[in-house]
């Protein structure tokens, strides 16, 4: 790589040479001495210029990146100091002069509220020779892409489906079994265990012990939950960016970022209770993630959500995705068109409990003109009509931007008040 004189060094040598010539012409040795110093220093530093070009690379942390702070390291190899700059999109992260003698590792933290695949940063480097007399040509920029996983937020009580499944779990079902609350007291029958005999009831009802009574309990069961993300829309708080000609701001979460966070939070809440959770995408025709449990299932769901993104023109399904019998469906969408509301109504008519989670960000309208305000008003009216029709079908609505844990806890209590709900 070519090293060239820096502008400052060139100006210093030119000024020194001019002083030396001027001193010689005027017979002023003092003036010539003043010019000799920068001239000699500039020539000496130019001879000491490096012959190796600086290099830079960006290394991400071994831990899976999550929204918030993304740690990384900038590794610079150079025989001298360098000018180092990093940017992310149109935002400058830093510009600095760094002293390097060999290899130096510099920690860097990138702040982001966005999730999914994205570029971590773009790092530029330019070598600076001794005395800043020479500079190298800019080295190739270093960049690195990262798949930022959504970070869950804690939720309280969660709604349950109308029917529970399985023989194990954390929820009390209507079936007789063990582990739940008291179901009834019944005369002893073949198959009952001796340790289930209630001696107090037996002594009261049959003092001569001609008949024994046993305590029967409800069985514990698990819930099956299917999370459905509508990836067809990815809109930001500024309606002017919805056309796609202007990208949303990097420091503002979009509707898909909110949907990823909401689905991850719900998945963590249900999986912590021992339930089985699956994932499907309304905007893509691919094999869904089947319901499963455990920590590995949460990792699979987070990874699949991070990869979820709009794919070309919005997809129109011929039929709604298939849902396991008796499952709870949580649909995360902006409901800006009829597709999400249509599939939600199909699931509700099929007997599923459907929770529609509205992930549209809080919109900014002050900068909009009259035409944009009128268009946004028409979109809002159509959207409110869709949500009202869903409410008429007993589809439960939750707005993620307005204390979703309170709304979900209210839905959980509502199910408990129903006769035989979640049993």
Question: What does this protein look like?
Answer:
It contains 8 helices and 17 strands. It has helices spanning 7-26, 29-47, 199-205, 255-272, 295-307, 338-349, 370-392, 404-417; strands spanning 3-5, 55-60, 68-78, 82-88, 91-98, 102-112, 116-127, 134-136, 142-148, 171-187, 213-221, 224-229, 276-281, 289-292, 328-333, 353-358, 396-399. A 6-stranded mixed β-sheet has the order 14-13-12-15-16-17, with helices on both faces. The protein has a 4-stranded antiparallel β-sheet with strand order 5-4-7-9. It has a 3-stranded antiparallel β-sheet with strand order 2-3-6, with no helix packed on it. Helix 4 (255-272) packs antiparallel against helix 5. The protein is elongated, with a radius of gyration of 34 Å.
How do the helices and strands line up, and which of them pair or pack?
Layout: E1 3-5, H1 7-26, H2 29-47, E2 55-60, E3 68-78, E4 82-88, E5 91-98, E6 102-112, E7 116-127, E8 134-136, E9 142-148, E10 171-187, H3 199-205, E11 213-221, E12 224-229, H4 255-272, E13 276-281, E14 289-292, H5 295-307, E15 328-333, H6 338-349, E16 353-358, H7 370-392, E17 396-399, H8 404-417
Parallel strand pairs: 12-13, 12-15, 15-16, 16-17
Antiparallel strand pairs: 1-8, 2-3, 3-6, 4-5, 4-7, 7-9, 10-11, 13-14
Helix pairs in contact: 1-2, 4-5, 6-7
Low-confidence stretches are: 417-423
User: SS-based structural class?
Assistant: alpha/beta
Mean pLDDT comes to: 81
Please bin the fraction of helical residues: 25-40%
Largest sheet, spatial ordering of strands: 14-13-12-15-16-17
């Amino acid at each position: 790589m070519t090293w060239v004189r820096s502008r400052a060094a060139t100006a210093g040598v030119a000024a020194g040479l001019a002083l030396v010539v001027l001193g010689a012409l005027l017979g002023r040795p003092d003036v010539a001495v003043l010019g000799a110093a920068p001239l000699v220093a500039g020539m000496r530093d130019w001879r000491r210029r490096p012959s190796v070009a600086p290099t830079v690379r960006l290394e991400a942390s071994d831990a899976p990146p999550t929204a918030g702070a993304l740690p990384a390291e900038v590794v610079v190899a150079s025989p001298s100091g360098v000018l180092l700059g990093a940017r992310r999109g149109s935002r400058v992260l830093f510009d600095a002069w760094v002293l390097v003698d060999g290899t130096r590792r510099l920690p860097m933290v990138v702040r982001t509220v966005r999730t999914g695949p994205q570029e971590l940063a773009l790092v530029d480097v330019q070598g600076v020779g001794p005395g800043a007399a020479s500079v190298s040509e800019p080295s190739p920029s270093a960049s690195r892409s990262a798949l930022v996983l959504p970070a869950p937020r804690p939720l309280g009580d969660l709604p349950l489906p109308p029917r529970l499944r399985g023989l194990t779990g954390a929820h009390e079902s209507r079936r007789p079994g063990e582990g739940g609350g008291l179901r009834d007291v019944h005369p002893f029958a073949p198959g009952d265990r001796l340790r289930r005999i209630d001696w107090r009831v037996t002594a009261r009802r049959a003092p001569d012990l001609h008949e024994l009574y046993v305590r029967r309990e409800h069985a514990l069961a698990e819930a099956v939950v299917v999370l459905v993300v509508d990836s067809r829309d990815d809109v930001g708080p500024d309606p002017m960016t919805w056309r796609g000609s202007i990208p949303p701001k990097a420091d503002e979460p979009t509707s898909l970022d909110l949907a990823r966070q909401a689905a991850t939070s719900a998945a963590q809440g249900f999986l912590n209770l021992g339930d089985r959770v699956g994932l499907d995408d309304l905007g893509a025709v691919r094999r869904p993630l089947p319901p499963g449990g455990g920590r590995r299932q949460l990792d699979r769901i987070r990874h699949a959500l991070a990869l979820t993104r709009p794919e070309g023109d919005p997809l129109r399904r011929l039929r709604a995705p298939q849902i396991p019998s008796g499952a709870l469906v949580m649909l995360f969408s902006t409901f800006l068109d009829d597709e999400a509301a249509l599939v939600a109504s199909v699931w509700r008519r099929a007997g599923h409990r459907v929770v529609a989670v509205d992930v549209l960000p809080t919109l900014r309208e002050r900068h909009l003109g009259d035409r944009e305000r009128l268009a946004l008003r028409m979109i809002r009216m159509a959207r409110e009509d869709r949500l009202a029709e869903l409410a008429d079908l007993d589809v439960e609505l939750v707005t993620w931007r307005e204390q979703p844990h309170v709304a979900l806890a209210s839905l959980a209590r509502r199910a408990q008040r129903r006769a035989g709900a979640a049993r």
